[in-house]
Amino acid sequence: MTPPLVIPYGNADWVAILPTITVGVTALVVLIADLGLPRKMRRLSGILIAIAGLALAGVYALAGWHHPFAAFGGAFVNGGFAIVFEEIVVVAAIFSLLMAARLGRDDQAGAGIALMLWSATGAMLMAGAANLLTIFLGLELLSLALYCLCALGSWPSSRESALKYFILSSTATAFMLYGMALLFGATGSVALAAFAGPHASTPLFDLGCGLFLIGLCFKLSLVPFHVWTPDVYQGAPLPVTAFMSVVTKAGVLAVLARFAYAALPAPQAHQILLPLWVVAALSMIVGNVAALAQTDIKRLLAYSGIAQLGYIVAALAGTTAQGLRYAIFYLGAYTFMNLGAFAVVALLSRDRDEGSHLSSFAGLGYRQPVLAGAMTFFLLSLAGLPPTAGFTGKVLILASAVNAGYAWLAGLLILGTAISAYAYFKIVRVMYARTTGTQIQRRFVPASALPWLGVALCAAATLVLGFYPIAPSDVLPLVR
Q1: How many other CB atoms are there within 10 angstroms of residue 134's CB atom?
Q2: DSSP code of 266?
Q3: Domains identified in the chain, total number
Q4: Cα–Cα distance measured from residue 97 to residue 117, given in angstroms and rounded to the nearest whole number
Q5: Is pLDDT of 411 > 60?
Q6: Which helix (H) or strand (E) holds 224?
Q7: Confidence band (pLDDT; 50, 70, 90) for 200?
Q8: 368 phi and psi, to 5 degrees?
Q9: Bridge partners, 131 (sequence order)
Q10: Of 93, 165, 316, 450, which residue is least crowded by CB atoms under 10 Å?
């Protein structure tokens, strides 16, 4: 008699990944609605269904706070660390969807929204991933959807950006997979918990860590693995660019932090991670210097993102609990100020992302003073000036780096911030200068009013976080 099939996992395992499952299932609901609704209702209905599903996933994630659990044999570890990153992904996806009024053609809208949700699902899976297989599964789910999303623009450079992202990202994934294979060979396990054992201190393990970190640095757009970022950001549709700028970074940062804090053996951690801090330092300087010459806002924000990720990784130097809290806080603040700036661009754009050109901002302070004021506020926050969340976050990162014994990183952060002010104030000058040498665009009604909601909420969050920095204490990553 054949014994009955016993499923080795219980309800607690499925509850741990319920937020991730909710987002993935919502994508299927969007596709079904896209098939059954009239064409004129499909896009707005898809956006509203997606936002509702993401909000529900956020509620489910918060329900697991203070209830850490190692699901599926330790492959996915739920807890404060994973929940914070899941919430950042949810919020970023919602604000990106508010800009999705011109994402592809009308017959592509449902598929585009579903792909964004599946990409967010991959990032949420990476937030709790505690073994190499789960990391790779989340990374591929995140990336494969983005390759398609980048090609949804109606201009030739959109397909070019998708192809460039696909080829270079695949190369980086190959580095990461080779590193994973070496780590498995050195430890005999794919679980991150097995990496901290004494048997892990071998040249094979060190080489595996290096290749693994190269793959993560590419996904984070850290120098010198950043060259793809400006071209892909410029060619991709605006909602996709906004989505990539935060969601991809949140998922990969979660993996990086869990690897650095909970997986590496303490004696070797400093030597293994030192090149990462050097890469963060280069990113802070190169990203801000390159932003000075940009006249396309998407390219400028791409280089800005390279520098901002350098700040966040610098907060992790020394792998202190304080540094991790401040890195998470700055990532949350960056989510709002960066997506707020993209929302302003969305309000100035129609079919071909015209609002990303610097000339679209000429005289904006006189044509639409509220919008210009909001953009100025977001740029001030990106530059790290008070009274914004960007200023508070950079002060906290400075304190963390100095306390951890990395004063040189703190000094480079200050230098990078000073350089960035010139890049951001170039946009402010164009908005308020009476004579700019460029033709002033006429005021027109945006394709959708939804980005206004994003601008208002992001501005409010950027201001509130500047005065009340919220950095949860229960965020140390766990492996089991």
Answers
A1: 22
A2: H
A3: 1
A4: 10
A5: yes
A6: none
A7: low
A8: -140, 80
A9: 191
A10: 450
Main-chain phi, psi angles of 152, to 5 degrees: -85, -5
In one-letter notation, the amino acid at residue 89 is: V
Question: 94 — alpha (psi -120 to 50), left (phi > 0) or beta?
Answer: alpha
> Per the domain annotation, does 311 fall within a domain?
yes
Helices (H), 404-469: 407-432, 450-467
What six digits make up the tokens of 62? 């918060």
User: What tokens appear for 354 in the block?
Assistant: 């015209």
State the number of CA atoms in the 13 A half-sphere of 388 facing the CB. 25
Specify the 3-state DSSP secondary structure of 423.
Answer: helix
Residue pLDDT, tens place only, 157-194: 788 888 888 888 888 899 999 999 999 988 888 888 88
| Beta-carbon count within 10 A of 401 CB | 28
Would you give the DSSP letter of residue 260? I
Rg (CA), the chain: 22
- How many angstroms separate the CA atoms of 397 and 313, rounded? 10
The mean predicted confidence, pLDDT, of the chain is 86
Q: Which of 260, 374, 266 lies closest to 314, judged by CA?
A: 260
Give the whole-angstrom CA distance, residue 212 versus residue 184: 12
Whether 26 is covered by a domain: the verdict is no
Q: How many CB atoms lie within 10 A of CB 352?
A: 15
Place of tokens 């190269």: 214
- Going by C-alpha positions, the residue among 165, 156, 124 that lies closest to residue 252 is 124
Pairwise CA distance, residues 469 & 326, whole Å: 9
pLDDT tens by residue, 334-370: 999 999 999 998 888 776 666 678 888 888 888 888 9
Residue type, 138: G
SS3 category, 71: strand
- Domain membership of residue 239 (yes or no) is no
Angle at 253 between CA 318 and CA 179, to 5 degrees: 85
User: Which regions of 128-263 does DSSP assign to beta strands (E)?
Assistant: none
Average pLDDT over residues 403-431: 91
Q: What is the DSSP string of 328-395?
A: HHHHHHHHHHHHHHHHHHHHT-SSS-GGGBGGGGTTHHHH-HHHHHHHHHHHHHHHT-TTSHHHHHHH
Q: Which residues contact 442 (CB under 8 A, 6 or more apart)?
A: none
Domain around 422: 266-471
Q: Describe the crossing of helices 266-291 and 297-315 by its angle, rounded to 10 degrees.
A: 150
Q: How many residues does the chain have?
A: 480
Compute the distance between CA of residue 454 and CA of residue 337 in angstroms, rounded to an integer: 11
Q: 């585009």: which residue's tokens?
A: 112
Distances (CA, A) of 263 to 183, 200, 202, 306, 463: 11, 10, 15, 26, 36
Alpha carbon dihedral 383, 356, 348, 53, in 10-degree steps, equals: -80
Backbone angles phi, psi at 131, to 5 degrees: -145, 165
Residues 6+ apart with CB under 8 A from 323: 315, 316, 317, 397, 400, 401, 404
The DSSP 8-state label assigned to residue 376 in this structure reads H
CA angle at 128 for the pair 284 and 6, rounded to the nearest 5° = 160
Residue 311 tokens read as: 């700040």
